[in-house]
Design goal:
single chain, 265 residues, alpha+beta, 40% helix, elongated, mRNA binding, U11/U12 small nuclear ribonucleoprotein 35 kDa protein, Nucleotide-bd_a/b_plait_sf, RBD_domain_sf, RNA-binding
Length: 265
C-alpha cells in the first residue's frame, strides 16, 4: 500500500488487468499473452519521446492539417505523425504529435484531453511506448485501453487509473470460534441463562400456539362463508338467466302465433 499510485510508474500486464493493481492471477488470456510477450519498441521511430503526445479516438476523416490547426494553439509543433494502414492508406484513428518545448507539451496534455474534433471526443496522453518501462501494446494483450463489453479492460493509465484498494485488516472472527481459546470457554452461569431463556421461549411458544390455531380456524370459517356466499350468488345468477330465456321464448311463440293468425284471416 505504501507504493500504491493511481497511475502506473512501470508497466506490469498483471497489475494492468486489475482494477486496483492487486491481482495475483491473470483473469483473461490476453494478460497471459502480454506477460509472455517480449516487446521491443520500434527503433524506426524518431523524435524526442519526452516531448511527444499520443492522440487517440480520432475521427477516421481527420487529417494532419486539422490536427496541426488544433494543437498548434498550445505551442510550436515539430512533427505530426498520423498512423495509417500500410495497405489502404486510411487513418487508424490515432496520431503522435511532437512539440518543440516541454511547456507546450504539458499545456496540450492538460487542456486537449476530451476535446471534440470532427464530432469525436479525443483522448490525449504522453507517449508510453518509449517512456514507460515494460510497455506492452494492446495488440499483444497490454495497453491501457479496452472496452467493458470485451471483459479485457486495462487500468493504470490516464483514462482508467487504478482504484485505491480497500485495506481490510486480517482479523479472526470470534463468532465462528476462531479467536483465543479462553474466549470460547463459556461460563456455567451463562449456560444456565441460555437454558432458562430457551425454556421461556418454549413456554411462550406454547401459549401462542392456541392463538394461532384460533386465528387459522377463524380464517377457515371466513373462507367457507365467502365461498358459500359466492355459490349462492352464482345460483341466483343462473336462475335469473333461465327466467330471461324462458321469457324470450314465450315472446317468440306469441309473436309467431300472431303472424299465423294474420295469414289465415
Amino acid at each position: 500500500m505504501a507504493d500504491w499510485a493511481p497511475i502506473a510508474k512501470e508497466y506490469d500486464p498483471l497489475k494492468a488487468g486489475s482494477i486496483d493493481g492487486t491481482d495475483e492471477e491473470p483473469h483473461d488470456r490476453a494478460i497471459w499473452r502480454a506477460m509472455l510477450a517480449r516487446y521491443v519498441p520500434n527503433k524506426g521511430i524518431t523524435g524526442d519521446p519526452h516531448l511527444t503526445l499520443f492522440v487517440a479516438r480520432l475521427n477516421l476523416q481527420t487529417t494532419e492539417e486539422k490536427l496541426k490547426e488544433v494543437f498548434s494553439r498550445y505551442g510550436d509543433i515539430r512533427k505530426i505523425r498520423l498512423v495509417r494502414d500500410l495497405v489502404t492508406g486510411f487513418s487508424k484513428g490515432y496520431a503522435f504529435i511532437e512539440y518543440k518545448e516541454e511547456r507546450a507539451l504539458l499545456k496540450a496534455h492538460r487542456d486537449a484531453n476530451r476535446l471534440v474534433i470532427d464530432q469525436h471526443e479525443i483522448f490525449v496522453d504522453f507517449e508510453l511506448e518509449r517512456t514507460l518501462k515494460g510497455w506492452i501494446p494492446r495488440r499483444l494483450g497490454g495497453g491501457f485501453g479496452g472496452k467493458k463489453e470485451s471483459g479485457q479492460l486495462r487500468f493504470g493509465g490516464r483514462d482508467r487509473p487504478f482504484r485505491k484498494p480497500i485495506n481490510l485488516p486480517n482479523m479472526k472472527n470470534d463468532f465462528y470460534g476462531e479467536g483465543p481459546s479462553e474466549k470460547r470457554n463459556w461460563s456455567r452461569e451463562g449456560t444456565r441463562d441460555w437454558r432458562t431463556r430457551d425454556r421461556d421461549h418454549e413456554r411462550s411458544r406454547d401459549k401462542r400456539w392456541p392463538e394461532r390455531e384460533r386465528s387459522w380456524a377463524w380464517g377457515d370459517s371466513e373462507r367457507d362463508r365467502d365461498s358459500k356466499e359466492e355459490r349462492s350468488r352464482g345460483r341466483e345468477r343462473k336462475d335469473r338467466d333461465r327466467k330471461d330465456r324462458d321469457r324470450d321464448r314465450s315472446r317468440d311463440r306469441d309473436s309467431k302465433k300472431q303472424r299465423d293468425d294474420d295469414k289465415h284471416r
